[in-house]
């Protein structure tokens, strides 16, 4: 009788253990890196389908400048709310977290999110999805850029990234979010002159700057 009972217990509990292990294996690691100069005092992470932010993830901790915070979540889309040392709030919606990812933000991203950056000569295309990096073109030349094309090597250029925007001369910028990789870049200025750069490795946030000399060298 004892042997039969032992076998029955093993039969019942082993599958339960397996289910717990399987559930844990479904979780992914989401890591936030604070590359800004501001400390984050409150951090909320909730499923995008939820109307409730839930509890502050940091508790008594602080996400200091240069620090990071990691948590385990089930694969899904999440909304993120951060409140910094000045009580400024940044909310990012629909962050796609399906795998282990590192999500970074610096001064520019944080201030953009909080609504402080509103310069007329700076524009950004799209929103930052999980795992994406920010590629910024800074035009220090005397020519305005009217068209920007980016593509993976050997692929079609696709549509103009600027749309109706332009990158103004003497300090204008344009940013877009990309998945890390290698890209080709084509720029066209107000005179129809074209500058093409191939094989740009963009594996982290990158600013691509050029002045008159670089522009003239590229279009010749």
UniProtKB/TrEMBL annotation:
Residues 1-23 form the signal peptide. The keyword Signal applies. The keyword Signal applies. Keywords: Signal. This is PKD domain-containing protein.
């Amino acid at each position: 009788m004892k042997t039969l009972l032992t076998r029955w217990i093993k039969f019942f509990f082993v599958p339960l253990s397996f289910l717990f292990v399987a559930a844990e294996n479904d979780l992914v690691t989401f890591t936030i890196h604070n590359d800004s100069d501001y400390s984050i005092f409150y951090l909320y992470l909730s499923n995008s389908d939820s109307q409730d932010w839930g509890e502050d993830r940091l508790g008594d901790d602080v996400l200091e400048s240069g620090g990071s915070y990691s948590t385990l979540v089930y694969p899904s889309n999440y909304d993120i709310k951060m409140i910094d040392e000045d009580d400024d709030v940044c909310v990012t919606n629909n962050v796609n977290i399906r795998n282990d990812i590192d999500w970074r933000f610096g001064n520019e991203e944080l201030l953009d999110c909080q609504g402080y950056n509103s310069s007329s000569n700076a524009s950004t295309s799209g929103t930052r999805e999980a795992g994406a990096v920010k590629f910024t073109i800074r035009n220090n030349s005397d020519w305005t850029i009217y068209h920007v094309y980016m593509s993976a090597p050997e692929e079609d250029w696709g549509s103009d990234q600027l749309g109706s925007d332009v990158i103004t001369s003497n300090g204008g910028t344009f940013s877009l979010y990309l998945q890390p990789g290698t890209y080709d870049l084509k720029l066209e200025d107000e005179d129809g002159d074209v500058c093409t750069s191939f094989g740009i490795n963009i594996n982290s946030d990158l600013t691509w700057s050029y002045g008159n000399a670089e522009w003239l060298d590229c279009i010749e």
